[in-house]
Design goal:
By secondary structure, the chain is mainly beta. It has one domain: PH-domain like (Roll), CATH 2.30.29. Helix content is 14%, strand content 38%. The strands form three sheets. A three-stranded antiparallel β-sheet has the order 5-6-7, with helices on one face.
Length: 85
C-alpha cells in the first residue's frame, strides 16, 4: 500500500510506502514501514502460551518493539518487499 501526501506549502511530493498487515484477530489494520522492520519469525510452540490466538508471525521493529500479525511470515516478507518496490 502506498500513501502519497502533498503539502500545500511545499512544492515537492512526499511519498511514504507502508505494508498493510492485520492483527491476530484479523480485523485490526496495522501499517508498517518496511525500512523499520528488523526481522520476522514464526512464533514457537512456547510463544503460543504468551501471545494472542491467531498470531502467525512476529514482526520485530528496529525500535525494539514487535508486532503480532495474522499473516504468515512468508506473506509478511512478500508484502514488505512489495511496499519497497
Amino acid at each position: 500500500m502506498v500513501f502519497a501526501l502533498i503539502l500545500p506549502a511545499l512544492p515537492w511530493l512526499v511519498e511514504l510506502r507502508l505494508a498493510e498487515l492485520h492483527g491476530p484477530n484479523g480485523r485490526q489494520e496495522i501499517y508498517v514501514n518496511p525500512g523499520e522492520v528488523a526481522s520476522v519469525r514464526a512464533p514457537s510452540a512456547a510463544d503460543h502460551a504468551h501471545f494472542a490466538p491467531g498470531a502467525r508471525c512476529l514482526v520485530y521493529m528496529s525500535s525494539g518493539n514487535f508486532v503480532l500479525v495474522s499473516e504468515t511470515c512468508d506473506e509478511v516478507r512478500q508484502r514488505l518487499q512489495d511496499a519497497t518496490h
